[in-house]
Write a structure and sequence with these properties.
96 residues; mainly beta; two-stranded antiparallel ribbon; 1 helix; elongated
Length: 96
């Protein structure tokens, strides 16, 4: 990633009985537990950077305690947003 490509990232800050941690896993993706969600995509010539950045947004819904994030596919020409979004629900102390 060049640093100029659109991306979205969500890091953790876990507060547990006045103890703070930025390294504690909060997201369960398949069999992996992670402390951040990250998505980036290669900007094509005919794409709007603002539109792609909005599509890559990680969205938290406080009402139903879910996070939706974009699904990105790797290709030989870079990463592309494939139009799908995945949803994690907060339960048992993690988004699963």
């Amino acid at each position: 990633m060049s640093g100029t490509e659109p991306y979205s990232v969500s890091h953790t800050l876990v507060i547990d009985h006045s103890e703070f941690s930025i390294n504690k896993p909060l997201f369960k993706l398949g069999k992996w537990s992670k402390n951040q969600l990250f998505a980036s995509a290669t900007l094509k010539e005919d794409q709007s950077k603002e539109k792609l950045t909005a599509q890559l947004a990680i969205i938290y819904n406080a009402q139903d305690k879910t996070i939706s994030y974009p699904e990105v596919s790797e290709t030989k020409n870079g990463s592309i947003f494939n139009g799908k979004r995945n949803v994690l629900t907060f339960r048992g102390g993690m988004f699963k």
